């Protein structure tokens, strides 16, 4: 975690995700919907750090995880 803090402190560019939230969805008819998700503080912090490291949005990560979970026959 200290290594990540060092990277963030030394970063000179703004961290913008490679993919916009709207690009996460596969068709124009699938407009993004705002959803509130409650996560333990530590998990939320780790998720944000992982998103920064992967240059992705938290939304795109959560959408990918939800699609995978739903694809396991839970729809």
From TrEMBL:
<dbReference type="InterPro" id="IPR012869">
    <property type="entry name" value="RHH_5"/>
</dbReference>
<dbReference type="InterPro" id="IPR010985">
    <property type="entry name" value="Ribbon_hlx_hlx"/>
</dbReference>
<protein>
    <submittedName>
        <fullName>CopG family transcriptional regulator</fullName>
    </submittedName>
</protein>
<feature type="domain" description="CopG-like ribbon-helix-helix">
    <location>
        <begin position="33"/>
        <end position="67"/>
    </location>
</feature>
<feature type="region of interest" description="Disordered">
    <location>
        <begin position="1"/>
        <end position="27"/>
    </location>
</feature>
<dbReference type="Pfam" id="PF07878">
    <property type="entry name" value="RHH_5"/>
</dbReference>
<dbReference type="InterPro" id="IPR013321">
    <property type="entry name" value="Arc_rbn_hlx_hlx"/>
</dbReference>
<dbReference type="GO" id="GO:0006355">
    <property type="term" value="P:regulation of DNA-templated transcription"/>
</dbReference>
């Amino acid at each position: 975690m200290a290594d990540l803090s060092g990277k963030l402190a030394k970063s000179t560019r703004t961290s913008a995700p490679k993919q916009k939230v709207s690009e996460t969805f596969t068709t124009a008819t699938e407009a993004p919907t705002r959803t509130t998700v409650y996560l333990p503080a530590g998990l939320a912090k780790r998720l944000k750090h992982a998103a920064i490291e992967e240059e992705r949005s938290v939304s795109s990560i959560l959408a990918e995880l939800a699609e995978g979970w739903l694809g396991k026959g839970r729809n």
